[in-house]
Amino acid sequence: MYDLIWSRFVASQMTPGIDELATIEIISEDARYLFRFSEGRQIFPGFRAVFPTGEAKKGYIPAFFEGDQVQLQQFLPEQKFTQPPPRFTEASLIRIMEESGIGRPATYVPTIGTLDKRSYIERKGRQLKPTQLGKLVDDILQKHFPDIVDIQFTAGLEETLDEVARGKTEWKHMLRDFYTPFEGVLKSASENIEDMSHITRVPIGRDCPLCSNPLQKKLGKNGYFIGCSNFVGGCRYTESIPVGICPLCKGKVVSKSSKKGKGRKFYGCENYASTGCEFIMMDPPSETPCPKCRSIMSQKVRKTGITVTCQNPDCKFVVEQSTGPE
Ligand SMILES: [Zn+2]
Ligand SMILES: [Zn+2]
Ligand SMILES: [Zn+2]
């Protein structure tokens, strides 16, 4: 530790290092292909003498002059693949929101929370993956509200809101400028948006215990739940969708959101209200139950991968998964 502090301090007082870097560009005779080659070398180490940066350039500068002709000696066809950028994580999504000027520090986390709560995204380790519903909602927004989902437009709007906060813009004008065109878009969208009920209301093959109408898997403000298809007719029967089996009482574990913690999601036993079973879990459940005792397992994301742990205190079975790129 002392070494780290000492070398950093001394380095901060030293002169910069100097590197020499040459870039050579070779253009084919027909001017269709450009080949670029860079090489550098260290001329003077500077602060790097005490604080190695791990990138000391030991190359040599080839002796080329502008206009030199080069002779093609060999031609090797090779196939290389460019990796697509990885999926967003919570951190990289917040970074891109910051860079694009959409959202403000106070809204970054709640925005991602909303995507979660409405089942627009699901998590795979640290990665955020759009759900089928998320993609569908995005398609509809792109089609009917192109301005609202445009990053530039949103960033501009947030900028104007900041001006309102600083007292530089009058809020009534700002709101009128925004709302007047938006009202028209909203009206035309409400007339033209496709019916999404095949996604948001799916029959589950079981009837309502109260009124015998078919039950459906429905999408509400807080994600999916099971409800009666006769909602319009007045039946309010609902059930939560179980995510696993309670290790304490073999009841169903369902997703809940805390009233205090800004709707933070957690998982608890459905029998809490009836028998007082106090099983709760903060980490998200794994897709499959424990292979040993069938109890619910939790997923914890670590730097090196995902640790899946059985929540049964008598079992504690653990699976380590390393996270690949996808
Ligand atoms: Zn019913
Ligand atoms: Zn229980
Ligand atoms: Zn187990």
What would your notes on this structure say?
- The chain folds into four domains: 72 residues, no CATH class; 103 residues, Topoisomerase I, domain 2 (Orthogonal Bundle); 40 residues, no CATH class; 83 residues, no CATH class.
- Helix content is 27%, strand content 26%.
- The chain has seven helices and 15 strands.
- A hairpin with a 6-residue loop joins strand 9 and strand 10.
- The site of one zinc ion has 8 residues, from loops.
The neighbouring-strand order within the major sheet is 5-6-7-8
Would you list the SSEs in sequence order as H and E?
HEEHHEEHHHHEEEEEEEEEEE
What is the count of structural domains?
4
Number-wise, the strands total: 15
Can you identify the CATH superfamily of the largest domain?
Topoisomerase I, domain 2
Total helix count?
7
Q: C-alpha Rg, in Å?
A: 29 Å
The share of residues in extended strands comes to: 25-35%
CATH architecture of the largest domain: Orthogonal Bundle
**Structural class, please?**
alpha+beta
Unreliable stretches, pLDDT < 50, 5 or more residues? none
CATH class of the largest domain: Mainly Alpha
State the end-to-end distance.
37 Å
Q: Characterize the quaternary organization of these chains.
A: single chain
Biggest beta-sheet profile = 4 strands, antiparallel
What form results from the Cα inertia axes?
extended
Helix content: 25-40%
Secondary structure topology:
Blueprint: H1 2-12, E1 18-27, E2 34-44, H2 90-100, H3 105-117, E3 121-124, E4 127-130, H4 132-144, H5 151-165, H6 171-192, H7 197-200, E5 201-207, E6 214-220, E7 223-228, E8 238-239, E9 242-245, E10 252-257, E11 265-269, E12 280-281, E13 297-301, E14 305-310, E15 318-322
Antiparallel strand pairs: 1-2, 3-4, 5-6, 6-7, 7-8, 9-10, 10-11, 11-12, 13-14, 14-15
Helix pairs in contact: 2-3
One zinc ion binds at residues 290, 292-293, 295, 310, 312, 315, 317.
